[in-house]
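Shift notes (night). Ran non-specific serine/threonine protein kinase while the centrifuge was going.
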Amino acid sequence: MDLRTSEESGGVVTAGKSDALEGGLGSKVKGVGSISNKDVFFRADKIDLKSLDVQLEKHLSRVWSRDREAQKPKEEWEIDLSKLDIRNVIAHGTYGTVYRGVYDGQDVAVKLLDWGEDGIATTAETAALRASFRQEVAVWYKLDHPNVTKFIGASMGTSNLKIPPKNPSSDGHSSLPSRACCVVVEYQPGGTLKQFLIRNRRKKLAFKIVIQLALDLSRGLSYLHSKKIVHRDVKTENMLLDASRNLKIADFGVARVEAQNPRDMTGETGTLGYMAPEVLDGKPYNRRCDVYSFGICLWEIYCCDMPYPNLSFAEVSSAVVRQNLRPEIPRCCPSSMANIMRKCWDESAEKRPDMDEVVGLLEAIDTSKGGGMIPEDQAHGCFCFSTPRGP
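Came back to this:
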């Protein structure tokens, strides 16, 4: 049986090689006598046809995938994977894994999106996700604001991407399905806002820093909303800080262009403690769901604490919708700041201010008289009942 096939034509590797088909035939077949490179004969009962079929399918799939990629016109946001050097894992998210890396000499964060590649999603669902991703990436690529993480580019296929192995001691690289997607954004060395607040949980933040961070976040959201983009997952974990403590909105994993009809935007998308009542209740929503989430973040920035730390997800969801539960504002909080919180997390989405209005309210706050949260070592008893401070 002659198994020789031209390698250049995209077929099986020449069987005359001792390690034919990446060990498929070479490891399964016992040769007889001396074998020349010109003529090779195998015993049919010693050939593992199932292994041969698998190897052939993988090889042809790679060839066809390369052919399709070569035929498709490149989008303006598509990156050159040969310029991307992925280093180490820095985070695991709902939609994939985030790595630190270098792209064309620039420090970057690389998010590998592997939804639809776990065998659970149907072909149609995966195709819909990829189509939506392609549309939204085209929007992200055009965003340009100092408080929005700079989007560098993306790739719709990762077949040529070298992923560091999960086990550092192992050799080589891990691989992803060729249909997985890759997003590259600028790297922020300051970590997440959540981590920064946790580090300052005991001593709290100076009021000027509270206002600076709040303004950065509000300006970034106002910009997104002006582009008709609803983030849908505004929380301190999704905000990054650069080396100068400037805040950058990140993680557009569930962001989408705002629908003309609010009823087209439904479903529980986001993180429970930050989700607006209408989102938790499965009702139609719009960009005002981000305003609600901003109000919770504002409380968190001021208090350097977590909202609802002693409640389960189910308790939070029920209480926010049915009992109008909100974080308790400490008495030391200046009324100007407290009023913004209350306006933003109003039960009625229509009564919440737009983010550009919030920017104006924050800019009007006088920070010269202090007004920051009282550190734990200076407070007597519960901070919520400490002596009022600030204007």
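The chain has nine helices and nine strands. Residues 81-186 form a domain with the Phosphorylase Kinase; domain 1 fold (CATH 3.30.200.20).
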